[in-house]
């Protein structure tokens, strides 16, 4: 199947929250969504990096984005509700969420992991996406074809040695994905899971530091899928898992 070619106005008048928008896949996707007409809400911890993405979006003529700094490891349900209310108050609508934020420390054997480390990984990688979706449901429900995209991980899908709490937290994200897809089956809201696979991203640089970066698929290779899954053409696609740049669900 050929790559999806997005119309220039694919996301015109849509408002999309992108977590992990300060760098890597979230940054690339936020810029691509804005390039295709969306007002994007940029969520991450580093205000400096989010402001750089904000400036890049204005420089390409995208709609003025919003910045929402938040530490997902520390946020409570009340914080997520306040964020949803702020989006509703300031932007009036929410049509989609792309969850790119992820916590990763290091590869390690089980003997070196801790309950504190696992708790943070679980909070950022699994509990926060679920809590954000919950907090935003009223706005997503009001949209005609709201789309939520979770970003998984190869080793959450097929856990192996040394990927530890990170793999477990991403496996939990996949379990949540199935629960949410089932609960939303009869609603206008849809949720799908994208597993990037080996890709030249900042996370990959941490897990495979010595690897030649230029022979890997690049972040931009995933953008057609991320645009497709956010746009109207995928309105009937729900509860599906996509791997890398393939538009054929697994
Ligand atoms: N093999 C695979 O399947 C594979 C390979 C690569 C990536 N991935 C997945 O693809 C996604 C993007 O990867 P990437 O390499 O592009 O990511 P990345 O560059 O490591 O970026 C992580 C993002 O998450 C944000 N973040 C981390 N901790 C946070 C926290 N506590 N609160 C709020 N934001 C937080 C960071 O924001 P700040 O910089 O502002 O802190 C940053 O924007 C991730 O979900 C990753 O697991 C999967």
Task: Write a structural description.
The protein is of the alpha/beta class and 250 residues long. It has a single domain (15-115, 124-243), classed as Rossmann fold (3-Layer(aba) Sandwich). The chain contains eight helices and seven strands; from the N terminus they run βαβαβαβαβααβααβ. The chain has helices at 24-35, 47-59, 77-91, 115-142, 154-157, 164-183, 202-207, 223-230; strands at residues 15-19, 39-44, 66-69, 96-99, 147-151, 190-195, 241-243. The protein has a seven-stranded parallel beta sheet, sandwiched between helices. β1 (15-19), α1 (24-35) and β2 form a beta-alpha-beta unit. α3 (77-91) runs parallel beside α4 (115-142) and α4 (115-142) runs parallel beside α6 (164-183). The radius of gyration is 17 Å and the shape is globular. Residues 20, 22-26, 44-46, 49, 70-73, 100-103, 124, 151, 153-154, 195-199, 201-204 line the site of NADP nicotinamide-adenine-dinucleotide phosphate.
How far is the first residue's CA from the last residue's CA?
14 Å
Globally, the shape reads globular
**How many whole angstroms does the radius of gyration measure?**
17 Å
Helices and strands, in N-to-C order?
Answer: EHEHEHEHEHHEHHE
| CATH class identity | Alpha Beta
Low-confidence stretches: none
What is the overall pLDDT average? 97
Helix/strand class = alpha/beta
- The number of strands is 7
CATH superfamily: NAD(P)-binding Rossmann-like Domain
β-strand percent reads 5-15%
